[in-house]
Design brief:
4 helices; eleven-stranded mixed β-sheet; L,D-transpeptidase catalytic domain-like; 15 strands; single chain; two-stranded antiparallel ribbon; mainly beta; about 220 residues
Length: about 220
């Protein structure tokens, strides 16, 4: 997926100020290994964000392991690193002192998946979606969006937020971490290569991330 380039610092600053989801206290429970996890199952209610009325998500219909939660997580990576485990369908945002925020994700279908290291070069609230030409060749009904793009909205495939991954050479990987209106796809291999989160979750992640080369992302198969 290509993206529409921000042209001014003002536009970027404006987008950073649009986040509108507040993390609530959540529930604490014991899991099998006796590690305590804090689960934010009550964070998926409806919310108005930048004028868009995001509907509530019936997360009770999703396996609870895919609900946002703070878990014990051992890694040598620094706090602020994002680690995506596509096999387990989890995204981890590393916190200090051996913890991480864990989000349920949807991943790319076989043949579209990507793995490696990158960094978040920039992020955008309510992005415009430009499908790649290769996708439009497979799905002619979206060809009109290749050039003009699909405007932000509740049905936009990028959802409420998008974080754009670049490689070490500063080149766009065309890989995104983004929201989705299709909450049923969380925990599945349903997207065309990018990592999708529930909209309420991607807003939470967006608020935590500061773009730049220190915003490291590791995608594992």
């Amino acid at each position: 997926m290509r993206f529409r380039t921000f042209t001014t610092a003002i536009g970027l600053a404006l987008s950073l100020g649009l986040a509108g989801c507040t993390t609530t206290s959540g529930d604490t429970k014991e899991v099998a290994d006796t590690t305590k996890v804090e689960i934010f199952s009550d964070s998926y209610g409806g919310v108005t964000d930048a004028g868009f009325a995001l509907p509530s998500i019936p997360v009770e219909k999703l396996d609870k392991k895919y609900h946002r939660q703070i878990v014990e997580y051992k890694t040598a990576e620094k706090a602020g690193t994002i680690i995506v485990n596509t096999r387990e369908r989890f995204l981890y945002y590393v916190l200090p002192r051996g913890k991480a925020v864990r989000y349920g994700i949807g991943v790319g279908k076989q043949g579209f998946a990507w793995e490696g290291e990158a960094y978040i070069a920039w992020k955008q609230a309510w992005p415009t979606w430009h499908p790649p030409k290769e996708m439009a060749e497979r799905r002619p009904e979206i060809a009109k969006y290749v050039e003009k793009g699909m405007e932000p909205g509740l049905t936009n495939p990028l959802g409420a937020r998008a974080l754009y991954l670049f490689n070490a050479e500063g080149q766009d990987t065309l890989f995104r971490l983004h929201g989705t209106p299709e909450w049923k796809s969380i925990g599945t291999a349903a997207s065309s290569g990018c990592i999708r989160l529930m909209n309420q979750d991607v807003i939470d992640l967006y608020n935590r991330v500061k773009p730049g080369r220190m915003a490291k992302v590791i995608v594992q198969q």
